Amino acid sequence: MDIPSWPQADEREAELLRAVLDSPQWGGFHPFIGEFEQSFAAYQHCRHGISACNGTVTLELALTLLDIKPGDEVIVPAISFVATATAVSRAGALPVFVDIEPYSFNIDPERVVEAITPRTRAIIAVHFGGPLARMDALQAIASERNLQLIEDAAHAHGSEWNGKRAGSFGVCGSFSFQNGKVLSSGEGGMVTTNDDEFAERAHSFANQGRVKGESFFKHFHLSSNLRMTAFQAAVLIAQFERLPDQIQRRTANAERLKRLLEDVPEIVWQQVPAEVTQNSYYLLPARLRNARLSRDDFHQALTSAGIPSTPFYPFPLYGNPLYQEPGTCRAMPCPNAEACVGDAFWLSHVLLLADEQTIDEAARHIRQAVGVLK
Ligand SMILES: Cc1ncc(COP(=O)(O)O)c(C=O)c1O
Whose CA is nearest to atom 7 of ligand 1? Predict the structure, then answer.
């Protein structure tokens, strides 16, 4: 299988990295940082972008600035990468895990309502694999109950809900530029927001409590250094130039693959709501339904054929050893999350950058894996 490598770089990254190397500023005060913050935030329909060293500290920053503290509860989906929940725990608050919808893999707004208590302060919506969670419903719940809505948009660079981009719905969005992401600098992150005051506080928090226009050695708030380096920004500027074309290519290939397999009822692809006007495919998740083969055998067959597949997370977030201690979290009933860890898988966005012949070959292998192992 002719699968492209990831991450990808060419002379453009080399040229921008060279410019940083030749400059006297390799750290977080190089002009590339502000340049990338502005252009990426605008792309996500936000007035402000605050870059950081990864997409974990951006979540932690968001919770700190919203004054989430011990005694508070924050609602998170049972299916996500662990950082969505640990950011809550590290703030001293209680993560409350709620179920996902069975086929979109995103947080179910009805389950969110059931989990709200007088201690609830915030909801973190994760846009799993690319498509946005149901933002209309989540925004309505948050505003009716006076809760903060944070978007963990680590998977959703360029994704839209009714023409509005990820990271522009909640008080803030949190992006990751970690190695495998569709916009990558190996490590990296950004907070996006349309709230001017939140942006100012976030800039300050990421910069040792400094305040713009004040002395470099005058620190106004207890905070930290979350800055990304100029090398990360250089790589991101180059990567970002390719993102729109890559989104188009991934979308066309995902649609082609799904079309080629539409007569295979055992594979139920991620359900993408009609409101998702652009899906920036980070993952192509699916569930195996009524198949006689196990999901793990199916995954093995794909892997042997050279298709980049992952057998989902091993357990819902609350199943991690970290959350076995009593009092470390509250888990609502999550039958959909429990089912998905047994029968779902995802294909990497890298497959979707391949040429059409490779997509056709992948479809043949997937069809064969379903058939052969039956
Ligand atoms: C949903 C989600 N949130 C947060 C993160 C954390 O991002 P980072 O690895 O940049 O710290 C990730 C990273 O994979 C993620 O997938």
Answer: 55
